[in-house]
Design goal:
Layout (H helix, E strand, L loop, with lengths): L1 E3 L2 H13 L4 E6 L5 H13 L2 E6 L9 H6 L4 H11 L3 E3 L3 H4 L18 H4 L3 H16 L3 E5 L3 H13 L5 E5 L19 H6 L1 H12 L6 H13 L4 E10 L14 E9 L2 E8 L2
Parallel strand pairs: 1-4, 2-3, 2-5, 3-4, 5-6
Antiparallel strand pairs: 7-8, 8-9
Helix pairs in contact: 7-8, 10-11
Bound molecules: adenosine monophosphate (AMP).
Length: 279
């Protein structure tokens, strides 16, 4: 496994792969890797000849400077995990490599940019699409793998790809959970033992909604799920919604074909998100 820090080194290693017409997959991450990230690499390996994983904690997508500062960066642990994952190339640029000079970025991502995460983290998806565009330009992958865990992020990246007509296929991968249901996240490391227990209410509420989707109506499902979360001390709910998976607008009709439940909450000092596809 090669590890490179510059776009020039990255391109020179990818040159022969492209010449040989091999399929290249990119798995963008911010590091602090866990089994969720490894599942993306696994799926990438199944569908491509050469897998690039990027590790870059992107400053422009953080709305809270404290969140950026305390984001975990266990580089040696990450490289050890990647070595056993079958990843072919790791791209780990310093901030200056991706942002050599200040730049303004704004593209039209449509109304869903401002809903849910976009409401609580203003400008977040401009930062996300800015760095993903730079990574796509650097790697020019055939396929790029993202987790359903960040449901809205995948929608926004697909919008960005459409906006620039980029020749890359976006693949969405299932959410990997701990045995007790908690969605794996790099941020879980910040949870105290008590937070860790409290955090379970998020996946419990999602499973409740999934299991009662046939028997209850949407207002009843929302009321029950929100009550479960709001009655858990130490958990502060930002939103729990049942939405159209394409527009993220709330749905009232269970007959629709693309329905997803999405939740975000602060557990202790840590903000967590999760979701579940319902139809
Ligand atoms: P991050 O390092 O948090 O930016 O995540 C990098 C990629 O891994 C994103 O596409 C995430 O959606 C995905 N990811 C994060 N957590 C999980 C998980 N529990 N299961 C599957 N994919 C995940």
């Amino acid at each position: 496994m090669e590890v490179v820090n510059t776009i020039t080194a990255l391109r020179s290693l990818l040159g022969p792969i492209k010449l040989a017409k091999q399929k290249i997959a990119l798995v963008p991450t911010m590091g602090a890797l866990h089994k969720g990230h490894l599942s993306l690499i696994d799926l990438a390996k199944q569908q491509a000849d050469f897998v690039v994983c990027s590790i870059f904690v992107n400053p422009t997508q953080f709305t809270d400077p404290k969140d950026l500062e305390k984001y975990p960066r266990p580089l040696e642990h990450d490289l050890d995990m990647l070595r056993t994952s079958g990843c072919d190339l790791v791209f780990m640029p310093p901030v200056k490599e991706m942002y050599p000079k200040p730049e303004n970025w704004h593209i039209d991502l449509g109304p869903a940019e401002f809903l849910l995460e976009g409401e609580f983290r203003k400008g977040h998806y401009q930062g996300v699409t800015q760095i993903v565009k730079k990574l796509f330009d650097a790697v020019t992958p055939d396929l790029a793998f993202f987790g359903q865990k960040d449901f809205q992020q995948v929608l926004m990246i697909q919008k960005m790809v459409n906006y620039f007509s980029m020749p890359v296929r976006i693949i969405t991968c299932p959410i990997i959970r701990e045995e007790d249901g908690l969605a794996m996240s790099s941020r879980n490391i910040h949870l105290s033992a008590e937070d860790r227990q409290d955090a379970l209410v998020l996946s419990k509420a999602l499973y409740y909604v999934r299991d009662h989707f046939a028997s209850l109506n949407i207002p009843e499902l929302l009321q029950e799920a929100r009550a479960m979360i709001q009655s858990t001390p130490g958990v502060e709910l930002d939103y729990f919604t049942i939405a159209d998976g394409a527009t993220l607008m709330p749905v009232l009709d269970k007959g629709e074909s693309n329905i997803v439940a999405l939740v975000a909450a602060r557990v202790g000092q840590t903000r967590l998100i999760d979701n579940m596809i319902l139809s």
